User: What shape does this take?
Amino acid sequence: MTYIEFKADRKISLKKFLLDRNISNRAYKKIIKNSILVNDKKIEKNIKLNSDDNIKIIIEDEILNYEPINKELEILYEDQDIIAIDKDANLTVNSKGQESLANYISYYFWKNNIKSQVRFINRLDMNTSGIILIARNPYAQAYYQKLIENNDFDKEYLALVEGNLEIDKTIVLKINYDENKKKMKIADEGYEIKTYFKNIKLYDKFSLIYCKIFTGKTHQIRISLSNLNHPIIGDKLYGSKYKLDRFLLHSYKVSFIRFRDGEKITILSRPNFDNYLNSSLLRSDS
Assistant: This one.
């Protein structure tokens, strides 16, 4: 059994203390029934805390929810609550019936005696590479997903697109899912997406673009760049003419305030776009 441990810094009610640390009302109701200790004593009701009181939230052991498959992972960051993985392209996150990142994480949990289900904090398309975060307990997952919902979790990408795109602006669109074409489409009514784009480097026929998303909608970077007539290289679904084994979009940076201590954390990952720029795959227009 493991714990999430805090120390009270002033006189305050237990409930307010937990809510101030981004424990939800729903989670609080569960915790107060049978999952919290104050100064190592079981507590089952809201009490007044004193300065320096020690609070422990009990994290119950769980059974793995995916079949473990032994595959080496590139771990970029890890603490008591989360793991950050550098995901390869051509790898699904957790699709049923396919070998997935969830299977690899499950094996890592088993090997390291982490008795938790696999809970993804963010997701990437199968052919997008880069940083994915996995929670090691349900309270961390709830905290980080709330950060994402409130736009307090910075997600930044790099994309290699077709043509010379000189840009430095935020683009807002509305999109909906096109059932017939199985992709997102620009629509008068739909989900609003907001993305900032800036060109970093121009090549002869391509552009390296920095992208920062302010909404977390499916395919929002892909459809926004396609709408500018500069699709991501290899993204056949949104108009790329290049036949690659992936599309060249990479989640290269995430920043957030850490769950337990409020420290600012930044995680970086470098894309392998150079491997494609220097290959024959992009030297032909076919």
Q: What stands out?
A: The chain has a mean pLDDT of 93. Residues 155-251+276-282 form a domain with the Pseudouridine synthase fold (CATH 3.30.2350.10).
